[in-house]
Amino acid sequence: MIDSFSKADVEAFNRDGFLTIEQDFISEATVMLLRERFDKLFAGEYSTGIAPDEVNWVRGRDPETKTRQICNGWKADELIAAQVLSEQSGRLAAQLAGWDGVRIVHDNCLWKPPGARTLGMHQDGSYAGYVDPAEMITVWVALDQTFAQSGTIEYVGGSHKWPKMPPSRGDFHDPDDWLAPVNEAAPEGASTERTPVVVKPGGAAIHHSRVFHGSGINEAEIDRRALVTHMVPSTAQFDPVGADPIYSRYRRRDEMTMDESYFPILWDKAGNRSAWLSSLPQLPGAVAAGSA
Question: Which pTM was predicted?
Fold first, then answer.
């Protein structure tokens, strides 16, 4: 398990806008456990009794070729929460971002079975206008072996240095041209070459909120599942003007503080972590919070 990144790793992240960890970000036993929880989560079985904030694929309602996505699955399943809200993810993300601490804004549970269609290229930061500062860093953890042809996440290296684009008005799921946003945003002379993330189950990638990323069709014969944590600085607050139709519902009237019940602090340099996170189950092979 990774405790910290080297100076070379940080430099690579700053250069490219992402960093790939080929294996052992989480243990094999944790991978197997999370796959089981995905089965239940996407079957609508919520062990906490609380539904996720977004369920963007339902069996029998949506096409089998649509990428399955659930947002804030951690609220529905405490084993999903144990990974999404891990101290390790927070600490390592903060190191790369250069922040003193991080809190979660939301997670993504993504499942692309064979034949599943594209997810359009985008910058996460384009959708963070409801948070101040409107910055994110994201940890993407693979639950399956990934290949260039398996619909894995792909990054355009260096695109985090481009201007932040406004949110796309098109369909994020299987757009007509999933590469159009990056081609339209690229400054003159900039490369739009894509790097697919090829990792083993339990491998990961961490990316900057302005790096363009998306995924193509899963042309392989295996599933591609990933568990994603989107984080903001631990000192972040709600923006008093910008609003998100889902996540701004947790903003109290006339108060911009982000409630730790819904946006817990995963790690900060003073050793703080939202107290209630200590009640989450320990995942196999995980390092106990505060022991690293």
Answer: 0.96
One-letter identity of residue 182:
V
CA atoms within 13 A on the CB side of 185: 25
3-state DSSP assignment of residue 231: strand
Burial class (CB in 10 A: 0-12, 13-18, 19+), 74: buried
pLDDT in tens, 102-152: 999 999 999 999 999 999 999 999 999 999 999 999 999 999 999 999 999
- The string of DSSP letters for 34-73 reads HHHHHHHHHTT--TTS---SEE---TTTS-TTSPEEEE-G
Task: For 114-147, give one letter per residue: b (16+ CB within 10 A) or e.
Answer: bebbbbbbbbbbbbbbbbbebbbbbbbbbbbbbb
For 255-279, write each residue's pLDDT tens digit. Answer: 999 999 999 999 999 999 999 999 9
> What phi and psi, each to the nearest 5 degrees, are found at residue 195?
-115, 110
Cα 292 to Cα 27, 230, 289: the distances in Å are 16, 22, 7
Q: What is the pLDDT of residues 138-186, one digit of tens each?
A: 999 999 999 999 999 999 999 999 999 998 766 788 999 999 999 999 9
DSSP state of 107: E
- CA–CA distance, 33 with 118 (Å, rounded to integer): 27
Polymer length of the chain: 292
